[in-house]
């Protein structure tokens, strides 16, 4: 069994689309400012904001940070609001959950904790999602790897760490 980490980066295509969209919005604001449809101060502020966001996504495209890391210690999400490390000894089950939407389905990696009365890390969800998603939810839609490929890699490399 291979003991190296599985490192999954955010999707590059999504970041490229964000760069393009914010650059186009900055050009729209520049045009609006040129034709005096918005005030000069507001236009400059909006252009600077859109340019900065576009540059941020461009920077993160060239210097990516891992969004999900799976290693011998457990599963770690390193997104903006990262869940931190979820140790294998706390996990009872890992599974894929699909939440259907009108245009596309959203994929989540659901993680259920072991029943431990000392553990207070329960997350409550509203609506129908509560029934199908576990204690921790990691969004898989904006990652480089396909959701089922991520799940299979987790199961293949680290099933020995999940104690039933």
If you had to describe this structure to a student in words, what would you say it looks like?
The chain has 164 residues and is of the alpha+beta class. The protein has two domains: 10-62; 68-158, no CATH class. Helices cover 38% and strands 23% of the residues. It is built from four helices and seven strands. It has helices at 12-34, 40-62, 129-132, 147-158, and strands spanning 6-8, 68-70, 74-77, 84-87, 91-100, 105-113, 136-139. The chain has a four-stranded antiparallel beta sheet, covered by helices on one side. Strands 5-6-7 form a three-stranded antiparallel beta sheet, with helices on one face. Strand 2 and strand 3 (74-77) form a beta hairpin. Helix 1 packs antiparallel against helix 2. Mean pLDDT is 78; it is low at 121-131.
Q: Classify the oligomer.
A: single chain
Strand order of the largest sheet: 1-2-3-4
Cα shape: elongated
Total number of helical segments?
4
């Amino acid at each position: 069994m291979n003991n190296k980490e599985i490192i999954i980066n955010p999707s590059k295509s999504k970041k490229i689309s964000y760069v393009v969209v914010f650059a186009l919005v900055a050009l729209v604001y520049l045009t609006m400012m040129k034709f005096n449809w918005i005030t000069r101060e507001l236009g400059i502020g909006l252009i600077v904001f859109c340019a900065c966001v576009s540059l941020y996504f461009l920077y993160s495209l060239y210097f990516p940070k891992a969004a999900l890391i799976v290693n011998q210690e457990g599963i770690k999400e390193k997104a903006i609001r990262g869940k931190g490390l979820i140790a294998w000894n706390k996990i009872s089950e890992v599974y894929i959950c699909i939440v259907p939407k009108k245009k596309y389905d959203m994929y989540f990696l659901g993680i259920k904790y072991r029943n431990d009365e000392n553990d207070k890390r329960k997350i409550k969800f509203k609506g129908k999602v509560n029934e199908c998603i576990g204690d921790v939810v990691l969004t898989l839609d904006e990652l480089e790897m396909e959701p089922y490929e991520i799940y299979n890699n987790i199961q293949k490399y680290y099933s020995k760490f999940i104690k039933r």
